[in-house]
Amino acid sequence: MPVFKAPFNGYSVKFSPFYESRLAVSTAQNFGILGNGKIHVLELSPGPPGVTESVSFDTADAVYDVCWSESHDSVLVAAIGDGSVKIYDTSLPPPSNPIRSFQEHAREVHSVDYNPTRRDSFLTASWDDTVKLWAVDRPASIRTFKEHAYCVYQAVWNPKHGDVFASASGDCTLRIWDVREPGSTMIIPGHDFEILSCDWNKYDDCVLATSSVDKTIKVWDVRSYRAPLAVLNGHGYAVRKVKFSPHRRSLIASCSYDMSVCLWDYMVEDALVGRYDHHTEFAVGIDMSVLVEGLMASTGWDELVYVWQQGMDPRAS
């Protein structure tokens, strides 16, 4: 299975929604505490070495997250540790990039998510406790959502409703928002510890998952959120990222500070259906390909990016 060695610590990995062989990786020097960052665009190939870098972009600060545009196949949006949001066009040489840079957040930008239905806007979540809504062609953010009492680690669009998104925060709440409304439309006190990640089910637009420092993943239905639909136990440390499968309704992938990547089916009793222990440091980035069923990618602080098919060993050559 393809493995890419980055010069810095991996933070985020995302498959292209346009090309099944392309993915982007965001990285940070010195575990993101101090130093530079780098964005790598990788191409998968059938023969050895299996993965090659097509282009990379250097940044003066850590790159905590990256996402592909849903409307332009060569455009990436990056969340930067200096509070900036940068847009890159991978078809242009590095000296011509970034093509846009927005400086509004007062602290690190931790996540970025492109609107999959409207395809004209994206969200950023920051350690300044806010979420911001942007359009690529606007010189400034459209709106700032400020309700969380602590860092917002992730904000993700609903896969069916172009105005609805969820945000996960260190204030231990999950909030649901509609950009047409003045404030959040729902507050779910999901965990007793920081919520690090959230994601929507791709087949049921009322179901979403959260992951937390409490080592659990919880699945929620916004129609009756007093108790979770499921609580998934199995990670030994904080669960850094959670991601619903784009192909199977009840399948969830997660990665953790216990260095593992896990697969869960939240609708069955023995929910843990797969565990991969290929990383040798914190596993912090995970994605599942929309275009190739079962294709997964992960990255971590061991500076490695793995791409593999579900059920296979990520380390197998």
Q: How would you portray this structure in words?
A:
By secondary structure, the protein is an all-beta fold. It has no helices and 28 strands. It is globular. The relative contact order is 0.13.
List keywords for this structure.
317 residues, 49% strand, 0% helix, mainly beta, four-stranded antiparallel sheet
Task: Set out the fold topology.
Elements: E1 3-5, E2 9-15, E3 22-28, E4 37-44, E5 51-59, E6 63-68, E7 75-80, E8 84-89, E9 100-103, E10 109-114, E11 121-126, E12 131-135, E13 143-145, E14 152-157, E15 164-169, E16 174-178, E17 186-188, E18 195-200, E19 207-212, E20 217-221, E21 230-232, E22 239-244, E23 251-256, E24 261-265, E25 272-276, E26 283-288, E27 295-300, E28 304-309
Antiparallel strand pairs: 1-28, 2-3, 3-4, 4-5, 6-7, 7-8, 8-9, 10-11, 11-12, 12-13, 14-15, 15-16, 16-17, 18-19, 19-20, 20-21, 22-23, 23-24, 24-25, 26-27, 27-28
| Spans of at least 5 consecutive residues with low confidence | none
Mean pLDDT metric: 97
The portion of residues assigned to helices is: under 10%
DSSP summary, beta strand count:
28
Strand order of the largest sheet: 1-28-27-26
Structural class: mainly beta
End-to-end distance = 5 Å
Strand content: over 45%
How would the global form be characterised? globular
Largest sheet entry? 4 strands, antiparallel
